[in-house]
Write a structure and sequence with these properties.
The chain is α/β, with parallel strands linked by helices. Helix content is 32%, strand content 23%. It has an eight-stranded mixed sheet, sandwiched between helices. The protein has a four-stranded antiparallel sheet with strand order 2-1-4-5, covered by helices on one side. The radius of gyration is 21 Å and the shape is globular.
Length: 323
């Protein structure tokens, strides 16, 4: 069995959003008691609605946000408790992130060469000439022309900018990359190119991914394991194919019922699960199960206590009605 490169246990990230000095304290629970693990060389998909905490989870793992509580073990070493950035620098080379917006994530005042070479400069890797050669190699790796090295981000399309972002991420030869919806702002044809590039890099370099997305069918395509998030909580996690073909949690069932089917005859026979009610606010989540206010199967116990993520067969599900 492959070893785990990342282990997340009971991770929480809360934000104090109190509006004034005399206002009652308000806490936004963006990530609430999340646990999962990622094996070396594996892609772990994270899927859920907008605002469920997917991006916050990724940013907390790479320590762009400091965790409120919980454990993050990377390559067997605890990184959640590291306080100073300079103490975390040794992990930065191995733990990187591809950001969602290819327009906002690149500095418009820097050339492509400067953007890709900046991580190497920060970590004092290579000489100036070696860094330039490395940048040229990275541009070739992501399918861009080495002549692009002196151009600025505004001269490129969205897909090309995302490739530049991927090249920057690869500059330090990371072992683990968090892909925060890297294809959501791109055309469908460009999405396929980026996915193929990520899969090729994984095969060649053995990189592990967390792939964050809205589209559960895309997550199934690229991932081996999947975690379904709702209101800051993981509600179901396990093997991708098992969850895709036999979802157990009512929220996962609703997500999969919304996946479009290209065959009109099959689509007619498919029943869509329509969730009623509004998505609750993470500032004031429901008592008990966070999904109970929209769940068509909710019982009295669902309002009384929050279900824990429990083992059901080969996966884990957080539901009182499953198991």
């Amino acid at each position: 069995m492959a070893e785990n490169i990342l282990e997340v246990n009971n991770l929480c990230k809360y934000f104090d959003v109190t509006s004034g000095a005399f206002a009652p304290k308000q806490v936004l629970k963006a990530v609430d008691n999340v646990s999962f693990s990622v094996q070396k060389g594996e892609t772990f998909g994270v899927v859920g609605e907008s605002g469920c905490g997917k991006t916050t989870l990724g940013r907390t793992i790479v320590r762009l946000y400091s965790p409120t509580s919980g454990s993050i073990r990377f390559k067997g070493e605890e990184i959640a408790s590291v306080k100073r950035e300079k103490d975390f620098m040794k992990h930065r080379k191995s733990l990187q992130m591809i950001f969602q917006d290819p327009y906002a994530s690149l500095n418009p005042r820097m050339t492509v060469g400067e953007i890709i070479g900046e991580p190497m400069t920060i970590h004092r890797m290579y000489s100036a000439s070696e860094r330039r050669d490395r940048v040229v190699d990275l541009l070739k790796t992501v399918g861009l022309n080495p002549d692009h090295i002196s151009r600025f981000p505004h001269e490129f399309s969205g897909g090309q900018r995302q490739r530049i972002g991927i090249a920057r991420t690869l500059a330090l030869d990371p072992e683990f990359i968090i892909c925060d919806e890297p294809i959501s702002a791109l055309d469908v044809s460009i999405q396929a190119q980026i996915i193929n590039l990520l899969e090729q890099l994984q095969q060649e370099r053995g990189i592990s991914y967390i792939f964050i997305a809205h589209d559960i069918s895309m997550v199934k395509h690229i991932s081996q394991s999947i975690g379904v998030m709702y209101l800051g909580n993981i509600v179901e996690t396990g093997n991708c194919n098992e969850i895709y073909h036999n979802p157990m949690h009512p929220y996962t069932q609703a997500l999969l019922s919304a996946v479009p089917i290209p065959d009109p005859d099959v689509a007619k026979s498919k029943s869509r699960i329509h969730l009623t009610g509004e998505l609750p606010s993470p500032l004031n989540p429901p008592s008990g199960c966070p999904f109970r206010t929209r769940c068509p199967h909710a019982k009295e116990i669902c309002s009384e206590c929050k279900p824990e993520l429990k083992q059901v067969g080969g996966r884990k599900v957080a539901c009182h009605l499953v198991g």
